[in-house]
């Protein structure tokens, strides 16, 4: 039996308006909150039991944007990263690439547990980024890739966060 729970620090990054807050709240509560605009970074704490292992998870929902895509203080604090763009916003996809590059640089030589999340897949009619482009970017950075919709369902969102938690936890095991 495990006595000391893992403590996992997750940072949610990406351009403004891509749905970082909606995704975070969806994961934590299973509910969809469509208006969650606040210009502050929010830190959430929760305890999860995943694969019979208990972890204390802290999730930082970043609101204040950095020129470089990610603040060095956030990259230092975080162990696992959710990088979000929106399928109807090409600029946000470019920014996701910038964020992933910055993370690789700032965390080097450590491996960076990260997932690339393409949000708002319900807006298929307004799509500016194809699934293939998203996959290609994730392959380039060796991270997992999910297309989800915070608006439509919690299922994909939950799976994506869980896989990041597993990957981040695995880093503890090898440390
Ligand atoms: P943030 O700035 O990245 O935190 O983005 P928010 O979570 O505040 O969401 C920005 C806007 O996108 C809000 O109006 C949300 O209602 C909307 N939104 C978030 N997720 C989705 C989604 O999956 N589909 C659609 N259609 N809209 C979404
Ligand atoms: Mg937000």
From TrEMBL:
On the tree of life, the source organism's domain of life is Eukaryota
* Catalytic activity line of the entry: GTP + H2O = GDP + phosphate + H(+)
Query: Could you tell me the keywords of this UniProt record?
Result: Hydrolase
Enzyme's top EC category: hydrolase
What EC identifiers does the entry list? 3.6.5.2
Q: Name one GO molecular function term.
A: G protein activity
User: Belongs to which family?
Assistant: Belongs to the small GTPase superfamily. Ras family.
Q: What is this protein called?
A: small monomeric GTPase
Q: Which organism is it from?
A: Petrolisthes manimaculis
